[in-house]
């Protein structure tokens, strides 16, 4: 075959591929204009709303039938994020203590669109909900459980407003990967920023097709993808305005600026890190960090890939209960460290 023929064939194939992508984009755009089925509740519980100036209307689920210290659950950030990710923990502790699960701005039943989505938007949203919880439960600081990138947001609140948070549990937290630049928003590839900002909704629609969602969710499971999580991810990512916050995330705009380890280091509350493997982050710096900060404990829940509260629910619950008991018995408020019989406990001390 002559070189000219090869070039023509390659050109024809490239043009065909571009036309196929263009056709899929147009088809997805047309589908996105069709009415979506109403979003079902992620948790079978009452819902409330906190109205804010900077984060819009922030929805939360609540079961207030229990007593004592409130528990606040904060889901992660990705294209199809929702409180469904922490539903099993909500069900585990409801009736035993007051439990709240937050829909972060741009997700679930919280406001979607009509605002600038930045890391501070989410820090402020968590702060507003925690202030609301504190008003509902006078004299009680909340135990907070936050997943993935939201761990950084929750830590920022705990560092700046320690009176709102009694303890902090970080599940598969971001920020411990040595290979990532501190200013991770600037680190997003230029082409990805351009696509997210200029193509917009049609690009997002391609990200949240069922095959695409299944592909990305499979990375977060050792075993099979949880089918209920998958169905809810599809439902919540096909609601009106669902693309705004995820596209800001894809463009790198939802990562806090600066070194996340410095924020984690400012947390004076007792904190627990639950982790194992994660396709979307690493924990290279975490063991050294925990050893250097006496307010932190860590537990590896294996085998998991970012969602231990789903794949290893019983073990996760066991760790949570042991940690909170550990805080009640061994936490020294004056030194912001764990002590037993007046002696410091190392981070390596087992929780149970």
Taking the sheet with the most strands, its summary is: 8 strands, mixed
Percent of residues in β-strands: 5-15%
CATH architecture: 3-Layer(aba) Sandwich
The tally of strands reads 11
CATH topology: Rossmann fold
Low-confidence stretches: 1-18
The domain count comes to 1
Helical residues, percent: 40-55%
Terminus-to-terminus distance = 71 Å
User: What's the name of the CATH homologous superfamily?
Assistant: Alpha/Beta hydrolase fold, catalytic domain
Arithmetic mean pLDDT: 87
Please identify the top-level CATH class. Alpha Beta
The secondary-structure element order is HEEEHEHEHEHHHHHHEHEHHEEE
Lateral arrangement of strands in the main beta sheet: 1-2-4-3-5-6-7-8
Radius of gyration: 22 Å
Tell me the number of helical segments per DSSP (H or I, 4 or more residues long): 13
Short description, anyone?
The protein contains 13 helices and eleven strands.
Reconstruct the topology from this structure.
Blueprint: H1 3-32, E1 46-51, E2 57-63, E3 71-74, H2 87-93, E4 99-102, H3 119-136, E5 142-147, H4 150-160, E6 165-171, H5 190-198, H6 201-207, H7 210-218, H8 227-236, H9 244-250, H10 260-265, E7 271-275, H11 286-292, E8 296-300, H12 308-311, H13 313-330, E9 331-332, E10 337-340, E11 343-344
Parallel strand pairs: 3-4, 3-5, 5-6, 6-7, 7-8
Antiparallel strand pairs: 1-2, 2-4, 9-10, 10-11
How does this model look, in words?
- This protein has 352 residues and is an alpha/beta fold.
- It has one domain (46-344): Rossmann fold, CATH 3.40.50.1820.
- It is built from 13 helices and eleven strands.
- It has helices spanning 3-32, 87-93, 119-136, 150-160, 190-198, 201-207, 210-218, 227-236, 244-250, 260-265, 286-292, 308-311, 313-330, and strands at residues 46-51, 57-63, 71-74, 99-102, 142-147, 165-171, 271-275, 296-300, 331-332, 337-340, 343-344.
- It has an eight-stranded mixed β-sheet, sandwiched between helices. Strands 9-10-11 form a three-stranded antiparallel β-sheet.
- Strand 1 and strand 2 (57-63) form a beta hairpin.
- Helix 1 packs across helix 6 and helix 3 (119-136) packs across helix 4 (150-160).
- The chain is globular, with a radius of gyration of 22 Å.
């Amino acid at each position: 075959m002559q070189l000219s023929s090869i070039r023509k064939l390659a050109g024809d194939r490239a043009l065909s591929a571009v036309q196929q992508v263009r056709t899929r984009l147009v088809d997805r755009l047309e589908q996105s204009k069709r009415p979506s089925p109403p979003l079902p509740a992620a948790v079978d519980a009452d819902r409330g709303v906190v109205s804010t100036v900077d984060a819009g209307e922030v929805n939360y689920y609540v079961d207030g039938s229990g007593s004592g210290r409130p528990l606040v659950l904060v889901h992660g950030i990705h294209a199809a994020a929702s409180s469904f990710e922490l539903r099993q923990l909500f069900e585990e502790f409801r009736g035993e203590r007051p439990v709240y699960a937050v829909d972060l701005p741009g997700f679930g039943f919280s406001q979607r669109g009509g605002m600038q989505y930045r890391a501070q938007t989410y820090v402020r949203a968590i702060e507003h909900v925690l202030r609301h919880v504190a008003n509902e439960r006078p004299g009680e600081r909340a135990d907070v459980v936050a997943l993935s990138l939201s761990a950084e947001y929750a830590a920022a609140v705990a560092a700046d407003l320690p009176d709102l948070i009694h303890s902090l549990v970080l599940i598969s937290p971001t920020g411990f990967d040595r290979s990532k630049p501190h200013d991770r928003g600037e680190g997003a590839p230029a082409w990805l920023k351009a696509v997210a900002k200029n193509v917009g909704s049609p690009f997002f629609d391609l990200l949240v097709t069922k095959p695409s969602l299944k592909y990305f969710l499979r990375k977060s499971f050792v075993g099979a993808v949880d089918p209920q999580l998958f169905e809810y991810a599809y439902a919540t990512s096909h609601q009106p305005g669902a693309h705004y916050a995820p596209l800001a995330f894809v463009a790198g705009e939802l990562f806090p600026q600066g070194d996340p380890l410095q924020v984690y280091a400012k947390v004076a509350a007792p904190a627990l890190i639950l982790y194992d493997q994660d396709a979307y982050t690493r924990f290279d710096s975490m063991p050294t960090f925990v050893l250097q900060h006496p307010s932190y404990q860590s537990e590896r829940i294996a085998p998991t890939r970012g969602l231990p509260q789903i794949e290893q629910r019983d073990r996760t619950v066991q760790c949570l209960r042991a940690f909170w008991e550990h805080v009640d018995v061994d936490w020294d408020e004056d030194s912001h460290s764990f002590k037993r019989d007046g002696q410091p406990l190392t981070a390596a001390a087992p929780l149970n």
